[in-house]
Amino acid sequence: MREFWVSSGHHLTRRAEHGGLVVTPELIMAYLARPELAPPEEACEAERALHASLMREPMRPVTPQDIGAMADADARENWTFMIAFRDLLLNARSLEGAYLELARKGANHLPPIMLNQLCHLLLRNALDGCEDPFILRAGELFFRPQKAALRDGALLLADCEVVEAQQAYAQDAHHSPLTALLNDVPEFGNLDVMDSENAWTYWSRSDAHSMIMNMGGDAKARMGLAQAIERWIAHLMRIEVKVEPIARMEDQDWRWFIGLDAQATRIGNALWNGEAIGPGAADRIVTLMRLTFVDESRVRPDMRGKPVYLIGAMDHESVWRLKPQNLLVGLPLLEGAHS
User: Fold this and answer.
1) φ/ψ of residue 92, rounded to 5
2) Which residue of 14, 210, 242, 246 shows the fewest CB atoms closer than 10 Å?
3) 132 Rama class: left (phi>0) / alpha (psi -120 to 50) / beta
4) Radius of gyration of the CA atoms of the chain, in A
5) What mean pLDDT value characterizes the chain?
6) Residue 189: band (very low, low, confident or very high) from pLDDT cuts 50, 70, 90
């Protein structure tokens, strides 16, 4: 079995008999070692002492007094978030259970990076043993924002962070006399577009997030996303679904949709209410898919035999921020049948 997404930290967890992941001291220590939590040079003694003690005993209880003793307000806020997050992971039956609780109750109190890291870890577990790099590349959309651009009429998606780093490097390079004569680099620089010929190289750079997804011009990329969604829902919700990309929604009696992001939710709500979606909104749609249930015993009676439509859309800055938690809480399931 080939390795991928080492940076998810899956090797720092333990898989329980029920198939979910269980938190370990090593995973908590990895969170504590992140730059956001490592005490800066100007940190007070209370912050340094708490961090050092947790690196020795990552599961030790932390009191409000421990955090309140810190001099810096930002440090107190960061540590409040971190300890609440840690305690949620410790008290849950599994990391999957912790994520579902956050999805259902809302995670506005957590920095997005924490929710994305947890999603990264859980999707790594859900895709364990996957041998299709198109599915894995599509899976990156669940926890890393994507920059969208058109090339030769096809919609391409590239990792936002990688694109920004390339642009910054190119901008610095163009300040030198030698490179000032060169034309501006394309928006995605020299990143490779994943195709059937180079997909095998994904295995050696899965943690670099450096391959472009040809969302508009490659059926394998679109199916990769559909199958990643199937695996995500099956793993977290224990329900089998089939997802297929579609070019347009021609169902006159459509009854349910899930917006995969904030923009798509607004578009879907407008369509549902018979309102205009606004100028340019249709051009921002990244994907349209149809989801059906293999076993409908947990599905609401009024939705049995009916598809759920999935809509994804980029924002005004051509960035797509997929919210995978929407796929879990938005399904038309019977009350009490969500896991």
Assistant:
1) -80, 155
2) 14
3) beta
4) 22
5) 91
6) confident
Paired tokens of 308 = 């759920």
Residues 6+ apart with CB under 8 A from 159: 140, 144, 145, 146, 147, 209, 210
Number of CB atoms found within 10 A of residue 251's CB: 12
| Of 227, 154, 164, 229, nearest in space to 193 by CA | 154
CA distance 98 to 88: 6
Kindly report the number of other CB atoms within 10 A of residue 120's CB atom: 19
Close Cβ partners of 258 (under 8 Å, ≥ 6 residues apart): 268, 291, 308, 309, 310, 311, 326, 327, 330, 331
53, HSE (Cβ side, Cα atoms, 13 Å): 13
- C-beta separation of 103 from 74 below 8 A: no
DSSP 144-212: S-EEEEEETTEEEEEEHHHHHHHHHHHHHHTTSTTGGGSPPPPTTTTPEEP-TTTGGGGGGSTTTT-EE
Cα–Cα distance between 12 and 53 in angstroms, integer?
20
> pLDDT tens for residues 73-107?
999 998 999 999 999 999 999 999 999 999 998 87
Q: CA 92 to CA 72: how far, in whole Å?
A: 30
Q: Is the dihedral of CA 199, 200, 204, 206 positive or negative?
A: positive
Residues for the chain: how many in total?
339
Contact 72, 43 (CB under 8 A): yes
This prediction has a pTM of 0.91
Grade residue 159 by pLDDT with cuts at 50, 70 and 90.
very high
- Domain coordinates in residue numbering, the chain: 6-126, 133-214, 219-329
Mean pLDDT of all residues in 22-42: 91
- The DSSP output letter for 333 is B
- CA terminus-to-terminus distance, the chain: 29
- Tell me how far apart the alpha carbons of residues 67 and 101 are, in angstroms, rounded to a whole number: 25
